[in-house]
Structures are given as C-alpha cells and as structure tokens.
Design goal:
The protein is an alpha/beta fold. It is 45% helix and 17% strand. The chain folds into two domains: 143 residues, Rossmann fold, CATH 3.40.50; 110 residues, Rossmann fold (3-Layer(aba) Sandwich), CATH 3.40.50. Helix 1 packs across helix 10, helix 4 packs parallel to helix 6 and helix 4 crosses helix 10.
C-alpha cells in the first residue's frame, strides 16, 4: 500500500481528462496535477523548450513526494519521456503514447488515423511505435494545432469548434481510408463527442484513458495502490485561468481538492 499522490502534468487542462479516468478506475488514489496554463500550448514549441518546461515541472512534482508521474500530454511524451526517465531512474514515469499503441495493436487495427499537435505529428512517434509493433499497420496523421488553444479558452461545445474540426478533418477523413482514430492529445477527449457526431463511423482511441490502465496494472503489481485517505487532491497551474478553475471544479465536483498558483521562472 502507498498513499502518496500520483503526479500528473500537461501544458494546460487537457491532462485533467486523464485524472478523470483515474478517479473512475481508482477512486482512492490522490493526485497532484500541474497545468502549465501560462505557457500553453506546447505543441507549436521547439523540442528544447518543451524538455526544459517538462523538467521544471517534474522537479517540482518529485519535490512533493509523488509515487509515480504520469505525463498526461502526448507532446511532452513524444519529446521528453526518455530524457525524463533517464534523469529520474527511481520514480516510475508513464507516458501516454506506449499504452495507446499497445491497445490499438491488441485490438488488431490495421488502418489507423492519428490527430495530435504539430510537435507530436512531426515526431512521428505514433507511426514509428505502431509500425514497430506491426509492420502491416497503415498510419495516417494530421496535425490540428488550433484545438488546444480553443479548448483552453473553453470553446468546446459550439459552432466555432465544429467548424475547426471540419477545417482540419474533413479532407483528412475523406482522403484516407481508416476506421480507427487515435486522439493523440489529451485535450481532445473534451471534443470527442463532436468528432464522433461529425464522423460517426470512426472508432476513437483515447490516450488519456489508456495510460490509466497501465498505471493501474503497475501499482497493483508493485503493491502500491492507495487506501482510502483524507489527503486532498491538489491542482496547480502557472496561471489560474478562469477556464482551468471552472473545468477542475466541474470535472471533480464530488472530490475535495485545493487549487493553487505555482510559477516557474523562465
Ligand atoms: N495535451 C497536450 C498533448 O497531449 C497538448 C499540448 C499543447 O499544449 O499543445 O499533446
């Protein structure tokens, strides 16, 4: 048994979709979440900058004595997972990409679309991992850089988002023959319903959820699952934007939590 919290982080509020899944699957687990809302989006930044930001956040989470770190961000996973694991060999660090690829391969998918940020698509990390696991898999990728800033602004369930989805995805879906689509950004589960509404025949894979299955298995295996405790969940952000606060309160209204501003110098 290990009652220490699990550390999560993302460039903003997208990783909250992963925390939501954790609370559903393992309600006794407590979290410390860091959303870098002042510096979002990461997906259009250079790999060096993304690694620098991620290292600052992981240093901070480690200083809070977390038992595991979940990189609830595809962009950071694709750019910094290896370097973070190298820097912190004693703490389990899970990224969102490997568990998602594992599930897609387990399900026997042969034609797979991936939507993600510019950085994740440019890294081709999904394509490489999928084809390494099964050389017959065909992978089609599409960067959708405007999704994250819109979600961070709370522009989610409305006409602007619908038009933006169509702008990026209409041709992508029409020109390529796939029936499975990886939501390769943890912000995207928040617009999954709209995507399904527009493209009903496509089966979605959610990277925010897949990593939690992996975390559950790891914690069980190592006998590190938490028991019911009075520790509160903590949500930190580099800018306490209205939308970060309201989304946190909306998603986790049934749990006791604290929200606080935590800044890093650039
Ligand atoms: N949620 C992050 C991801 O999964 C978004 C990155 C960004 O800020 O662009 O990639």
């Amino acid at each position: 048994m290990d009652n220490r919290p699990i550390g999560f982080f993302d460039s903003g509020l997208g990783g909250l979709t992963s925390v939501q899944e954790l609370h559903e699957q393992l309600p006794n687990e407590k979290v410390i979440y860091y959303g870098d809302t002042a510096r979002t989006p990461y997906g259009s930044k250079s790999p060096e900058t993304i690694r620098k930001f991620a290292t600052q956040i992981v240093d901070y989470l480690v200083s809070k004595d977390v038992k595991m770190i979940i990189i609830a961000c595809n962009t950071v996973t694709s750019m910094a997972l290896d370097s973070l694991r190298e820097k912190y060999p004693d703490i389990p660090i899970l990224g969102v990409i490997e568990p998602t690829v594992k599930k897609v391969i387990e399900d026997g998918c042969k034609k797979v679309g991936v939507i993600a940020t510019k950085a994740t698509i440019a890294s081709n990390v999904y394509g490489e991992h999928l084809r390494e696991a099964d050389s017959d898999v065909e992978v089609y990728s599409c960067a959708c850089p405007a999704f994250v800033p819109l979600v961070e602004e709370g522009i989610i369930d409305n006409k602007i988002m619908e038009l933006t989805i169509k702008y990026y995805m209409d041709e992508f879906v029409k020109d390529n023959d796939f029936n499975n689509l990886i939501l390769g950004c943890t912000h995207y589960p928040l617009i999954a319903e709209q995507i399904t509404h527009l493209y009903p025949g496509i089966n979605l894979y959610n990277s925010s959820a897949e990593v939690i299955r992996e975390a559950k298995e790891y914690l069980k295996q190592k006998d590190m699952l938490a028991e019911n405790s009075t520790i509160k969940d903590r949500y930190y952000a580099s800018d306490l934007s209205e939308n970060f606060i309201s989304m946190t309160k909306l998603l986790f209204k049934d749990r006791e939590s604290k929200i606080k501003l935590v800044e890093f110098s650039n």
